[in-house]
C-alpha cells in the first residue's frame, strides 16, 4: 500500500527571504505549486508594492525589477532627474525574466532617462 498525502501549507513558507504559500505533495517530496508572496517590484534587496514607490526610492543608475504582472494604474509618472533601468517580466524569485510586465495605463517620463526591457504599455 502506497500512502500519498496532499498538504496545503496554512502559513507562509520562506524561500530566500520570499514568502510563498505552497501546495506540497508528500508522496514525491515536490512542491506542486507556489503562489508568489513577494512584492511585485524590487531594487536590490528592497521590495515595493508599486512602480512609482520603487522609482521614488531609486538612485540614479539603479535597476528596478518588476514581476510579470499587470499594474493597473491610470498614469505612472517618472519625473525626477535620474537615470534608471526598468526591467520587467521577472518570475516570483527574481532569478529569471522570461515574460513581460504590463502597465495598464500610461507611462510618462518628464525628467531623467528610463531604459526599459520587457515592458508592455497598454
Characterise the protein shown here.
It is a single chain. The chain is mainly β. It has one helix and 14 strands. β3 and β4 (30-35) form a beta hairpin. The longest helix has 7 residues, at 51-57. The chain is globular, with a radius of gyration of 18 Å.
Q: Helix and strand layout, with pairings?
A:
Layout: E1 6-8, E2 13-15, E3 18-25, E4 30-35, E5 41-43, E6 46-48, H1 51-57, E7 63-67, E8 70-71, E9 75-78, E10 83-90, E11 101-103, E12 106-109, E13 113-117, E14 119-121
Domain count, please report it.
2
Order of helices and strands: EEEEEEHEEEEEEEE
- Major sheet attributes: 5 strands, mixed
- Percentage of residues in DSSP E strands: over 45%
> What is the overall pLDDT average?
79
Contiguous uncertain segments of 5+ residues: 1-34
User: Which structural class do the helices and strands define?
Assistant: mainly beta
Quote the distance from N terminus to C terminus. Answer: 54 Å
Strand tally: 14
- Strands side by side in the biggest sheet: 6-5-7-10-13
In helices, the fraction of residues equals: under 10%
- How many distinct helices? 1
Question: What is the CA-based Rg, rounded?
Answer: 18 Å
Shape, please? globular
List keywords for this structure.
122 residues, 6% helix, 49% strand
Short description:
This protein has 122 residues and is mostly beta strands. It has one helix at 51-57; strands at 6-8, 13-15, 18-25, 30-35, 41-43, 46-48, 63-67, 70-71, 75-78, 83-90, 101-103, 106-109, 113-117, 119-121.
Amino acid at each position: 500500500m502506497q500512502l500519498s498525502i496532499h498538504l496545503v501549507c496554512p502559513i507562509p513558507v520562506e524561500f530566500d527571504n520570499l514568502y510563498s504559500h505552497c501546495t506540497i505533495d508528500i508522496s514525491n517530496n515536490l512542491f506542486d505549486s507556489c503562489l508568489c508572496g513577494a512584492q511585485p517590484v524590487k531594487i536590490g534587496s528592497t521590495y515595493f508594492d508599486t512602480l512609482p514607490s520603487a522609482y521614488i526610492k531609486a538612485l540614479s543608475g539603479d535597476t528596478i525589477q518588476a514581476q510579470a504582472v499587470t499594474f493597473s494604474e491610470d498614469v505612472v509618472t517618472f519625473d525626477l532627474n535620474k537615470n534608471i533601468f526598468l526591467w520587467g517580466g521577472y518570475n516570483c524569485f527574481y532569478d529569471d525574466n522570461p515574460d513581460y510586465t504590463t502597465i495598464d495605463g500610461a507611462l510618462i517620463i518628464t525628467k531623467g532617462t528610463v531604459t526599459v526591457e520587457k515592458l508592455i504599455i497598454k
